[in-house]
Amino acid sequence: MVKFSKELEAQLIPEWKEAFVNYWQLKKQVKKIKLARKPKPPQQVANSTSSEFGFSIFDPIRSYFSSASSFSSTTAEIIKVRRKMMAGSDHEVYQTDLVHLFSEEDEVRAFFEKLDGELNKVNQFYMAKEKEFMQRGDILNKQLDILMDLKRILAQHRRCAKSSSNNSSVSGGVFSRSWSSSPRTSDFSESGLESELTGGETPKSEQSETEEVIAALEKNGVSFVNSNTRTKLKKGGSGGNNNNNKPKMALRVDIPATTPTRTITAVTSMLWEDLINNPKKGESGGGGDHINRKKIQCAEKMIRSAFVELYRGLGLLKTYSSLNMVAFTKILKKFDKVANQQASPSYLREVKKSHFISSDKAVRLMDEVECIFTKHFANNDRKKTMKFLRPQQQKESHMVTFFVGLFTGCFVSLFSVYAILAHLSGIFSPTTGRSYVETVYPVFSVFALLSLHLFMYGCNLFMWKATRINHNFIFEFQPSNSLKYRDSFLICTTFMTSVVGAMVIHLLLRAAGFSPSQVDAIPGVLILIFIALLICPFDILYRPTRYYFLRIMRNIACSPLYKVLLVDIFMADQLTSQIPLLRHMESTTCYFIAGTFKTHRYETCNSGKLYRDLVYLISFLPYYWRAMQCLRRYIEESDVNQLANMGKYVSAMVAAGARLTYAKKENHLWFAIVLVTSAFATIYQLYWDFVKDWGLLNPKSKNKWLRDDLILKNKSIYYMSIGLNVVLRVAWVETVMGFRFKMVESRMLDFFLASLEVIRRGHWNFYRLENEHVSNVGKCKAVKPVTVPFRDADSD
To answer: What is the C-alpha radius of gyration for the chain, rounded to an integer number of angstroms?
Structure first.
């Protein structure tokens, strides 16, 4: 039977952990009561009794009456729970008074003081979150009303366009829209009914229907811009024939510029308005871009996502309420058992009357969200609604564990065979090993580094799960499609078993006397197979994960045109540690496209000017992408830290370029440049790793030079991790030490250093996400903030 403390630890919401009942502290207080009630040894009690009173024939009768009085005291109420208003606030707090005198009164009083504090904390947190979700629900209901009204107007306009041939001159949209000064949002103003349906006569029934829809929009506080006077009804102002004193607003569609098309459109529209039209703020633009069906669909998708997130938050609040109720019940039962009293019924009656148990607002709002979602977003299909609102968790299979073990054994066996064959055939000897190292080695190095990165990611997933770091929430992964650590290990072992198997086949065919030009094509075939599996459209081999990975790579490659998410930042940081892999991919592509694997003329790729110039480009690209992400975030958030972060990647680009140049021109000048730029970039990166990414090196922290909130209990692990990160960060020193190696040894050393950088990145990943998780816990952030598409254009 699992102890409740472990069950609570496994089920509580990590981001709200501090708001839960501190069950462990209350258990310690109950233990103090137990120690205070510890009876004296029997011999000591007998001696004290006989010495003071002696023995008596009435002792059995006295014992009977004392037990009867004890029973009556347990049936009577021994505590009284009172409610009172908190000073300077309208919140109620609970206070417990002891009616019955306890022998260990101090410990019991301290226990109930802590219990009252926990009850007040839970109650107030629940009320705050309930109020937040109720406000979010009201906002989403208004957003949905506006969306439905807009869809009705668009449908009405399309019917009018079909019913009259004269309506063909209408510009294709109901609302004229001009981009605001922000490239992320779009404004539109509703023209009057005359300008909406210009170009022909409108049937009276259709016109009256449109007027009803516009009237419904006005009830939601939406005003209109008259196409003739171009005057906007401000909040609390008047204009036109406005006889209603209700404040109005100009409607604004806030569609995030998440794709290159939206970003480019937003920027060009903004530049056009600022440089050519120079419109005044508060006036509608005269651009020809219109709100169309696609924009309404984007708004609908945003509202649907907001409802899903609201439902998820309400579910978490419901879980919070039930777990805390069970915790109160369990701890009071422990107290009753230790104190030999019946305090739990009285206290639990008050707990059940408290707001976090008695309130049903969250449950009713959940039912309302289900009904709304079924009606408006699921075509009255409740099963489809539940797939969105309550996605099924992916079940873990023991077959995955079995295959991980199987492929691990196969990999070890095949690698042993490969090492023996490589030694017997002498492929790494200085005389015969050049062709192998130039053509085959880069391909297998790519797969080896990828497999190592997958293994490190699997270790990250395992540690995040063990420490209850909610990486799915941080990365905004779908729990039903996200990889588990066993899946990552399975992909890694399958990957390496296939690669080492191909390496063994390659050596066997070479030893059998096949033509090198034919045998050396095996690595290229292996690459094509894995690319085909990566883009395979069939729903096999983790298709959701593969396609999500491809979308992330697309977002990174097109930076800064796509909206930057944390998962994009995380993946771009991984690429900065895989520059050797990218350079191996460049070599492999050159060898196979140029046909070098047939002719074995390596000068084509090693000495070509284009190849040497591409080395700079490939070394710069990951840093450039990451710098562009920082620039995009600075434009959106106006956070100066993003510019400082961008400077870190620019300094890394300069250092990488200096090292590449020094490899070609080994003189004192370039040696000094490499030393200065690399040292500056390393210090910059180390500072950012420890202070910004990991949140450590805080001199005012209660944990010396760490941070206040630590996930790992052993502090020495953090100090060792700091030292390890420093050592692995300065691996570039090898490039300027002047060591001379032969070609084979040099390639092996490069692979070893590249592997160390991958290991360092996997080590960095854990602490980076730990710091993000601690930040979410500090903010009690368990639900994603969502943006709504319709808001007041004058709110800016």
So the answer is: 35
